[in-house]
Design goal:
The complex is a heterodimer of chains A (208) and B (319). In chain A, 38% of the residues lie in helices and 17% in strands. Chain A is of the alpha/beta class. In chain A, helix 1 (2-13) packs across helix 2 (42-49). Chain B folds into three domains: 1-69; 75-177; 182-319, no CATH class. Chain B is 75% helix and 0% strand. Chain B has helices at residues 10-36, 40-68, 71-92, 100-120, 123-126, 129-145, 151-174, 186-212, 227-243, 252-280, 295-303, 305-317. Chain B starts with 9 loop residues before the first helix and ends with a helix. The A-B interface holds A 15, 17, 19, 128-129, 157-158, 160-161, 164, 167, 169, 171-176 and B 83, 87-88, 90-91, 95, 97, 100, 103-104, 107-108, 288-290.
Chain lengths: 208, 319
């Protein structure tokens, strides 16, 4: 009940229209929805744009440093969105993987289990001006762990303007959520090639 | 027992009945045309027509409720339209990261206060809140934010959005402030007449344009607005507006002049908004929501018409 009402409310606040360039696909397939990260509203919006049958089995991955703080935020993150709270910077680690990063991947893989999908932002942090930042390695490592999952790019339009980094109150402009076609990690695919391919798929949705 | 609608006086009741009869005829004609249309373009045109007629049913229902609940219903309705229109306008016009604060002021301070003033019937402040206070606040606040790139363009954008979507639109419910001695149409009669004439003009210009439109008036702005549509729509609307003089406080000749003013201002408002849309490279203001025109596309003919109509009545008919 609360979830459905909140999903609708989030779409109204962000004036969101939702586009699927291909149909959503069966809800029981495990997927990673990955989007461009520009505001704190991002995962809420992707989550609210999913069909209900998909939404109930999809958990956002959120930074514990923001969503774990404060009673309201914590309640929303854990009880309503069923977010997996992680220590930020770990999943997003550059270059040499430290143990913390791999532990975070473990946490996420465990949370996914056999039937749960997730929402992630491979840039690791919010972009200040809406331009897509380089992808970090978390998505790649997760796919190595779970190569069978479908990867669905989700482009968020105009959210930088609605709630830019550093602002508290959103301006009620219109936004758009565009879902792309599902992809997979190719056998033997290198990290850089994989990240480039994912990034290009996301950028292609901007102009779709 | 019937519910008590204090604002539903005989004049309004008759006007609404007339609109409902028109819509019923339109719906039947639309259904017949949908069966007859064979070619693909004809089917598309008829589908567009029927979508408009359906939107009209919704509009008349909403408007009837608003009018029947008296002043507050109309004020809430137009406040909501202002909010949605402003949202569409600001979405499609470029603002910078530094304008966040100013946009919050526009949406959450100036727009609500403007409608509170309409509700309070405080004409003195209603008429100057945005042209004076918002006009000086916005550039001041933007200068404080420190981003000087395209400064004039950005301030003008926010000022224009507020003026068009909030100030101009709020003149429609502000008609409720005007008490014309001896007029039996009640406070909402003037408003209903304005909306009816403006929307009739939209429909008639569209219809004439589709049927006989050849020469576009401003081809670079809107290829759909033709001389034939403009003249056919204006003449017919003014004729209807004159024939409805009994629903206004005006004698027939003045009702005709008022209708002419509403149609010309409606055309100018629509053309101006088309120019903005063309500049931003979109077909309609609801473009982010595919397949729907936005609220701003629906109210663009009221933008210029409402304030001029208001001030003409206030100057000549309100003691």
């Amino acid at each position: 009940m609360i979830e459905r009402a909140l999903a609708r409310l989030a779409r109204i606040i962000a004036g969101a229209s939702v586009r699927w360039t291909v149909p959503p696909g069966p809800p029981e397939v495990q997927r990673v929805y990955f989007g461009n990260h520009t505001s704190h509203l991002d995962f809420i919006l992707i989550w609210s744009a999913l069909p209900e049958a998909v939404r109930v089995r999809t958990r956002p991955i959120a930074g514990a440093d923001y969503w774990g703080r404060g009673r309201v935020r914590r309640y929303l993150a854990t009880r309503v969105f069923h977010a997996v709270l992680i220590e930020r910077g770990a999943l997003a680690s550059h270059g040499r993987e430290n143990r913390g990063a791999l532990q975070t991947i473990d946490v996420i893989a465990e949370a996914m289990g056999e039937d749960t999908s997730i929402i992630v932002f491979p840039e690791g942090t919010r972009s200040a001006d809406g331009a897509l930042l380089p992808f970090r390695s978390g998505l790649y490592h997760l796919c190595q762990r779970k190569p069978e999952v479908e990867l669905v790019p989700v482009y968020l339009d105009n959210l930088t303007r609605i709630l830019p980094k550093g602002e508290v109150l959103p301006v009620p402009l219109l936004s758009r959520v565009t879902f792309g076609a599902a992809m997979r990690l190719e056998p033997g695919e290198e990290k850089r090639a994989f990240n480039d391919r994912m990034r290009e798929a996301l950028i292609a949705l901007r102009d779709a | 027992m019937l519910p008590h609608f204090p604002q539903l006086n005989p004049i309004l009741a008759r006007l609404m009945l007339g609109v409902v009869v028109l819509l019923i005829i339109g719906t039947i004609v639309g259904a017949v045309l949908a069966r007859r249309a064979t070619s693909e373009t004809a089917q598309a045109t008829v589908a567009n027509l029927n979508a408009r007629i359906r939107a009209w049913w919704v509009m008349i229902a909403v408007f009837a409720v608003a009018v029947a609940t008296g002043g507050i219903g109309s004020i809430v309705l137009f406040a909501a339209m202002s909010f949605l229109a402003l949202r569409e306008f600001m979405t499609l016009t470029p603002t910078s990261r530094a304008d966040h604060g100013v946009l919050l002021w526009a949406f959450f301070i100036f727009a609500p206060i403007q409608y509170v003033l309409v509700w309070m019937q405080w004409y003195g402040l209603f008429a100057i809140l945005i042209p004076v206070y918002a006009f000086v606040t916005i550039p001041g606040r933007m200068a404080l934010a420190g981003d000087t790139a395209r400064f004039l363009e950005r301030t003008a954008t926010v000022q224009w959005g507020l003026l068009a979507c909030v100030y101009c639109v709020s003149y429609a419910p502000a008609l409720l402030m005007l008490v014309v001695p001896g007029y039996a149409g009640g406070r909402t009669g003037l408003l209903f007449y304005l909306v009816l004439i403006a929307q009739l003009n939209d429909v008639l210009q569209y219809t004439f344009g589709k049927l006989v439109g050849r020469r576009p008036i401003a081809p670079t702005v809107s290829p759909n607005k033709t001389w034939e549509g403009f003249i056919g729509g204006t003449v017919t609307t003014v004729a209807i507006g004159t024939a409805l003089w009994w629903a206004t406080p005006f004698p027939p000749l003045v009702a005709g002049v008022m209708s002419l003013v509403i149609t010309i201002m409606g055309f100018a408002g629509g053309l101006t908004m088309s120019a903005i849309k063309r500049d931003r490279g979109v077909k309609d203001f609801g473009a982010l929501i595919q397949g729907h025109g936005g609220v701003l596309d629906r109210v663009d003919s009221l933008l210029f018409a409402a304030p001029v109509y208001f001030h003409l009545i206030r100057f000549f008919y309100v003691p």
